[in-house]
Predict the structure.
Amino acid sequence: MSLAIETAESGPDARTWAAPAKINLALHVTGRRADGYHLIESLAVFTRFGDRIEIKLSDGDAFGVSGRYAPDVPLDGGNLVLKARDALRQAAGLQDTPPVSIRLEKNLPVASGVGGGSSDAAAVLRGLAAIWGLGIDGAELARIGLTLGADVPMCLSAKPLVARGIGEELSMVPDFSALGLVLVNPGTPISTAEIFAALSRRDNEPLPPLPRSIDFHSLRNWLEITRNDLEPVAVAIQPAIGRALSWLDKAGSGFSRMSGSGATCFGLFETGNVAKRAAAEIRARQPDWFVAATRSVPSEAD
């Protein structure tokens, strides 16, 4: 199998699946298991902006990458796209899983706290299940996804949810409207393992109850009494994260926070148009940063 960036060409027979960014609006670290995995409670949403996966049947397996962040994507067996393909093939059997060409359009920064790799893997699982006509239900896909990483099951759901446990216990949140968001990443590499290792406390309080009715104002008020327990550590290790948060505040964000283990930060805006203006303002001041205005996927989206 060839792994060159130019290998997998899109074409008329290719089908496309979205791999949205996952934004942890709040993330509480509530414990640690004996095996070292941290227990969390997190309210997460998924955005219209993200990576894209194209798949088509092929004479032989192929994988290619394009997009702004293609040079940062590993092209060997360590890539979650290839791991997802191989895991689904192993579960379904070789006779029902013919060769495929997969192309990843990498629009999200790599290892940036927005679940990009996990979302790519989830899109591959959904896409290959359809391309191969496997008839695998969501629960089985989630089981396979969990073997690839704790974030993959929630990325398979890709709607507003609360994740508990190590991220695999999911509760969908109904009546959650789309949010106007600006995503900012200063291009600073950060290690998730380093962030978790530096935590001074791992038995924090769980999330408070969600508001009965979720809109921009009630959500902002709720977020004010929640945390991302990884943010203080991440800002101490990489001060550029604090600068990204400051730029979001200066641009009029109603609420700003780091997502996941960073370094991507989000700003909450009342409308999509306000978010677009804020993103343009930040981009003009920081042209080398990753900046994207987007909207989250509502709970009732198709």
About this structure: The radius of gyration is 19 Å.
